[in-house]
Amino acid sequence: MADLHKIIKAIDEFLEKKHQKTTTPVEINPYLESKGLLNDSQSRHGKPIREILRKGKIEHAYQIGVNWFIPHSKNSSESVKQFVKIKFEKMDSSKPNKTEGHKLTTIGELLVELIEEKHNKKPNYHLEYKPDWLLSFPTESLIEYHPILIKLYSNLVNNEFGLKEKLKELTHKNYEQKQSFDIWIGEPYNFAIEFDEKQHFNQFREITLNFYDKIKINFPIEYRPKGQYLGFGILN
């Protein structure tokens, strides 16, 4: 059985170490597993801690929409919640997106039309959407949770560099750098679309595909046409 006292203490330590006001289930669950406190779900990262939150067992945690946030146990004031809410609303995919004249507008609007026709609910969407959680570089806790990343990186650079050593060279600004999705379909569907462009799907992506049988993924690799790179994925 999970030790809530130790889990809350570990979350506080994580926030202090990272100088963050809050964390999320997806971010903190790998860290808790690395501490031997709460195993994560391979198919839905963050699910175990999310279930604890839903039962109200971490009283200072709170939701904004469908998203959970966990502040420091000694800093769970309304001002922190308001800070997160304002930050979250800036990147909330439920808000209208300025798409006029964008090269992806036509396909984005077509997708929205098809989704509405099938599910009777029209989503908003963002083009070149850059969420706060889609970081360019892996965190220390992510590497601890998925040590296979070290091997993958070595293959990508022909064993010339080490991942952990290279990450030490990064600045704080580097760690805040984020990636973007070509199209993000918002509530209540929440999935991303990335087009098969050579800057993304090239010989380096082929190397990463060799590691997909070692991890849980959200799309079957066997759907890839023979001799082609996989150019489409969905994230929930």
Would you mind describing this structure in some detail?
This protein has about 240 residues and is mainly α. The chain has a domain at about 5-90: Arc Repressor Mutant, subunit A, CATH 1.10.10. Helix content is about 40%, strand content about 10%. The protein contains ten helices and six strands. The chain has a three-stranded antiparallel β-sheet with strand order 1-3-2. Strands 4-5-6 form a three-stranded antiparallel β-sheet, covered by helices on one side. The longest helix has 15 residues, at about 5-20. The two termini are about 30 Å apart.
Binned, the helix content reads: 25-40%
Structural class: mainly alpha
Ends distance: 28 Å
Radius of gyration: 19 Å
Which percent band covers the strand fraction?
Answer: 5-15%
By CATH, the topology of the domain at 4-88 is Arc Repressor Mutant, subunit A
Question: Which CATH architecture of the domain at 4-88 would you pick?
Answer: Orthogonal Bundle
